[in-house]
Write a structure and sequence with these properties.
The complex is a heterodimer of chains A (197) and B (763). Chain A has 197 residues and is an alpha+beta fold. Helices cover 32% and strands 14% of the residues of chain A. Chain A has helices at residues 19-22, 50-57, 115-120, 124-132, 141-154, 160-167, 178-192, and strands at residues 7-8, 28-34, 37-44, 76-79, 82-85, 98-100. Chain A has a five-stranded mixed β-sheet, with helices on both faces. In chain A, helix 4 (124-132) crosses helix 7 and helix 5 crosses helix 6 (160-167). Chain A is globular, with a radius of gyration of 18 Å. With 763 residues, chain B is an alpha+beta fold. Chain B has 17 helices and 33 strands. Chain B has a seven-stranded mixed β-sheet with strand order 5-9-3-16-13-14-15, sandwiched between helices. Chain B has a six-stranded mixed β-sheet with strand order 11-19-18-17-12-33. Chain B has a five-stranded mixed β-sheet with strand order 1-32-29-28-20. In chain B, strand 21 (476-483) and strand 22 form a beta hairpin. Strand 1 (7-8) of chain A pairs antiparallel with strand 2 of chain B, so a sheet runs across the interface.
Chain lengths: 197, 763
């Protein structure tokens, strides 16, 4: 017999008998604004990284867990518009900030966090990554997508140095970056032509 | 150029995405592309299940030690810890292994490398599991580790494993061993330990079925082989251990061996709960095998005119503590030690030994990568000695179809070696280094003084086998079902990022003339597809999909003929998936002709039989070979020893391009790993301890490190391969390293004999 397949993380609450309890400290309860939606985080530990809370508490596995020391960029998210590695951010420190993950990137005209829209319509960068061949195993892809959005939102017509500098914090082991650079070029062209956001 | 050979510049393949269409030769978008760019694609580390526990592994801190005792009591006493398992809890076979089962599931009496699994825990939270590990008390008696592979075979060195210290020794003797040349060049070369550094960590979720069996969703390269090994260790029949592919974040050989598979299943069966195990990066560095470090001694004999007369090679590979795929790696090193050249006389002696270093096994191009650095360094030495241009010397000796290899095997398929070399060399050279930040060695740090920067150009060519060799049967099975105008493909191929899912759908679309979907891969209801390695899936599983689709098309043709009341032969099946009969006035796609009926066929693809090598290393061990040449351009700051790889060009033998964008992706990605081995990637092992198990300290190329890549695919269809396509994954990694080092030598005049090249090797 087979069992039904497991699901991607959907944010089951921790039931841990965590050290905080025995140490007499309280678990934190706080609210994070993720992709435009207020999310309550219960039973969190003060030491929980933003990456852990996003992936394992809030059911947003788009930010990936490749190195967990800020070297690979697979967990790239935007906090108040600043590109960060979620693994290096304390979740609690992001209270009051606008957090945007790959799941919250939306095409032009949409509000951030329109989950239905984010799931249904690809952004220009996402479309370019697929068409140009920037995706192989895909583990680095969400981080690259967020980083490229960050770059093009800041610098609409980047030169090669801008691009390489902006993406040097994102490791990819499959592509050798050639098709990712082609995707950036395609997205720049598409935006320049006003065909999309 | 040989007859039937054409070359295709694939530097800028047209993006033909956007639709689900796309036949063989087009570049349709990946079917998994959309969920991957949205962050919705479920990698193995993203999975969870109701009531799930977290597993973690306790690993040896010693390279070699006796285990006097293990006390798991303090760990079990921690609230939230459900189970702790050790060697005593393994119900089936206590050891496992890809080729020979020599590695314990958990160490019992002795640990043989730093990172060897000793125990595993399941707990309600990753942190609880981590605390449980530190509560387990293991009493070790450290032993003197064997860390120098050169010492492994010495008479006074005790065996560190019951199977002995020599994993495999191969001797190839071909032609006249006494032959000599007018000139002789010698060299000793070393290759450091490279890591696959796939980004998705080892991960899996084991779910007990409540009846003593288990389902495992896992990131792997070969589901059925994992299933067989896991079932043996669990003491369960195969049908009670069901593997399903979890999303795989890259592999490159590093997922051929088991990592967390048995541990997670064992914990799930013990606790009755789903158990998830995901390695952190430092654990990943010791949780999978690596590329074998190599020491090689070469002697090349040639005529004064530059014809190779004889190659002598001694190769020593460090296999680390357990065998993994070492016996296949050393065989590749031996068979390809002389390079893709006509070598009438050869003496090759290759050994892989056991040490207390981390185990080594498969990584992209295994065996061939190491010896390519050796034989190509020698060809440059020979060119210098003879005063012949390095490209000319290679062309003069280039292997071609009909030539005989040092194994005595005659090359019967495509062997466009000269075409690869010419194509790599035909690309324009880059302009001289400018003052831009990206153009200097040292990058944006601007540490290099332009007056100290020297440019060099180097070439290299390499080859290896496609498909498994030496008599191994690596069949693949696939099923194609045509229903409702859509073809669905079932095949147990591990999609690791290479794009098999795209290729499989292209093949089904091409044969049946309709859209196609690829079903999830697993061990239930379909036989093995073999491993996603040895550049074999396009050929083997692509071949199985092709055959199954053709069977379906033939069924539809029979049905149509019956409907029309004509002989099936009077209805023609075209190459683009249509049924045509001028007499009956029929011209429609196979899928359309199928109408509401359902057709299904299962097919197995087998390649031609291969044979083991005899005691002189002779035998038809291989089905086919792939070739590639690379030309590298580097700028070196001779004062600081900093290298910037400016450009890598390549001519690659691919048989036929099935998907231009995916082929260029394989070429660029493979070159990145070759460049990494040339100038930055090395696992630093000190006394058996990995000193740099992180992406902070083990550096892989970033986008700022990557050179311009210009690629030409040489398309000479391989007669025995489906569509003539050979597989493209490994060749980019084989000779790109050697080309970069040749360029560094040309720039600096330093006789570099070791990779990766470090700054202090150059100043």
């Amino acid at each position: 017999m087979t069992t039904s397949p497991p699901t991607p993380a959907h944010g089951a609450a921790d039931t841990a008998d965590d050290p905080g309890h025995r140490d007499g400290t309280d678990d934190a309860v706080y609210e994070l604004t993720v992709n435009g939606v207020a999310r309550t985080v219960e039973g969190a530990r003060p030491t929980d990284s933003l990456l852990h809370v996003l992936r394992d508490r809030l059911g947003l596995p788009g930010a990936k867990n490749a190195c967990e020391q800020g070297e690979c960029g697979s967990c790239s998210v935007l906090v108040d518009g600043v590109l960060v590695c979620a693994c290096l951010e304390l979740a609690e420190a992001a209270v009051g900030c606008e957090i945007t993950t790959v799941e919250g990137l939306t095409p032009p005209g949409a509000e951030p966090g329109d989950a239905a829209l984010a799931g249904a319509i690809l952004t220009d960068v996402q479309q370019a990554m697929i068409e140009a061949g920037g995706v192989q195993c895909g583990f680095c892809t969400p981080g690259f997508v967020v980083a490229i959005h960050d770059l093009l939102d800041r610098v609409p017509d980047p030169d090669p140095l801008d691009v390489r500098e902006a993406l040097a914090g994102n490791l990819c082991r499959c592509t050798g970056y050639g098709r990712i650079l082609a995707a950036v070029e395609q997205a720049v062209t598409v935006r320049g032509n006003g065909r999309s956001r | 150029m040989s007859v039937g050979t054409s070359s295709t510049d694939v530097q800028a393949p047209p993006a033909r995405g956007g639709s689900a269409g796309g036949h063989v030769g087009d570049s349709p978008i990946r079917p998994d592309g959309t969920p991957k760019v949205q962050g919705r694609f479920a990698f193995a580390s993203d999975l969870e299940a109701e009531g799930m526990l977290w597993g973690r592994t306790l690993r040896s801190p010693h390279p070699y030690a006796r285990v006097r005792s293990i006390d798991v009591g303090p760990a079990l006493a921690i609230a939230g810890v459900s189970s702790v398992v050790t060697a005593d809890d393994v119900p089936g076979a206590s050891t496992y292994g890809l080729i020979s089962p020599d590695q314990p599931v958990f160490a019992r009496d002795v640990v043989r490398y730093v990172g060897e699994a000793v125990a595993a825990v399941a707990a309600d939270h990753p942190d609880t599991a981590r605390r449980a590990l530190s509560a387990i008390v293991v009493d070790y008696e450290p032993l003197d580790p064997l860390v120098d592979p050169a010492r492994a075979t010495a008479a006074e060195t005790p065996a560190i494993h019951p199977d002995g210290n020599v994993i495999r020794h191969i001797r190839i003797q071909h032609g006249d061993p006494a032959a000599t040349g007018d000139v002789v060049v010698e060299g000793v070369y070393e290759v450091g330990m490279q890591d696959q550094a796939f980004l998705g960590p080892e991960s899996g979720l084991a779910v007990p079925d409540g009846e003593g069996g288990v389902d495992l969703w896992v990131a792997t390269q070969w589901l059925h082989e994992d299933r067989d090994q896991v079932a043996a260790c669990l003491g369960l029949p195969h049908d009670r251990v069901r593997l399903h592919l979890g999303g795989v974040g890259g592999a490159f050989g590093g997922r051929e061996d088991l990592s967390m598979q048995v541990h997670a299943c064992l914990l799930a069966l013990r606790t009755g709960h789903p158990v998830k195990m995901t390695y952190l990066r430092d654990e990943s560095f010791v949780g999978h095998v690596h590329r074998h470090p190599a020491r090689m001694r070469y002697r090349h004999h040639a005529t004064a005119a530059g014809d190779l007369v004889k190659v002598e090679a001694e190769v020593l590979l460090d296999g680390g503590a357990y065998a993994s795929s070492s016996s296949a790696v050393v065989s590749n090193a031996a068979r390809f030690a002389c390079g893709p050249y006509r070598v009438p006389n050869a003496l090759v002696d290759a050994t892989v030994v056991r040490t207390n270093n981390p185990p080594c096994g498969a990584m992209r191009g295994f065996g061939a990568v190491q010896v390519c650095f050796g034989h190509e360094s020698q060809m440059d030495k020979l060119a210098t000695r003879l005063g012949i241009d390095p490209v000319e010397l290679r062309l003069r000796n280039a292997l071609s179809t009909g030539d005989v290899l040092p194994t005595g095997q005659k090359v019967t398929g495509a062997a466009p070696v000269a075409e690869c070399i010419r194509a790599a060399d035909a690309h324009p050279l880059p302009s001289p280094a400018g003052d831009g930040w990206l153009e200097r060695p040292g990058g944006v740090g601007r540490t290099a003084e332009l007056t100290n920067v020297r440019r060099g150009v180097g070439v290299a060519v390499g080859f290896k086998n496609v498909l498994y060799s030496e008599g191994f049967e690596d069949d693949s099975e696939a099923r194609v079902r045509l229903a409702g105008g859509v073809a669905s493909v079932t095949c147990a191929v591990a999609e690791v990022g290479q794009g098999f899912v795209t290729i499989a759908a292209q093949i089904a679309r091409t044969v049946l003339g309709c859209d196609a979907v690829v079903e999830p891969a697993g061990t239930v209801g379909i036989d093995s597809a073999g491993s996603s390695s040895a550049s074999r899936q396009t050929w083997m599983s692509g071949g199985a999909v092709l055959r199954a689709a053709q069977l379906v098309a033939a069924q539809v043709r029979s049905a149509v003929a019956e409907r029309l009341g004509v002989a099936p032969e009077s209805v023609t099946l075209t190459d683009d998936g249509r049924l045509v009969s001028a007499s009956a006035g029929v011209d429609m796609t196979v899928a359309h002709a199928a109408g509401g009926e359902v057709f299904e066929a299962t097919a197995v693809h087998r390649h031609r039989r291969t044979y083991p090598l005899d005691d002189r290393g002779q035998g038809d061990a291989d089905v086919s070979f792939v070739f590639a040449a690379h030309r590298a351009v580097v700028d070196v700051d001779t004062d600081l020893g900093l290298v910037r790889v400016v450009q890598v060009t390549t001519g690659q033998d691919v048989g036929r391009v099935l998907h231009p964008t995916q082929v260029i992706g394989q070429i660029e990605g493979g070159i990145a790993q070759g460049v990494g081995l040339a100038v930055m990637e090395e696992m630093v092992i000190d006394g058996g301890v990995v000193r740099n198990p992180s992406f902070t300290d083990y550096l892989i190329p970033t986008v700022a490190d990557m050179p311009q890549v210009l690629a030409t695919c040489i398309e000479e269809p391989e007669p025995e391969a489906p569509f003539g396509a050979k597989g493209a994954g490994e060749p980019p990694t084989i000779s790109s390293t050697a080309a970069v080092v040749a360029a560094i030598r040309a720039a600096t005049g330093v006789d570099v004999s070791r990779v990766p090249v470090r700054p202090w090797d150059l100043v």
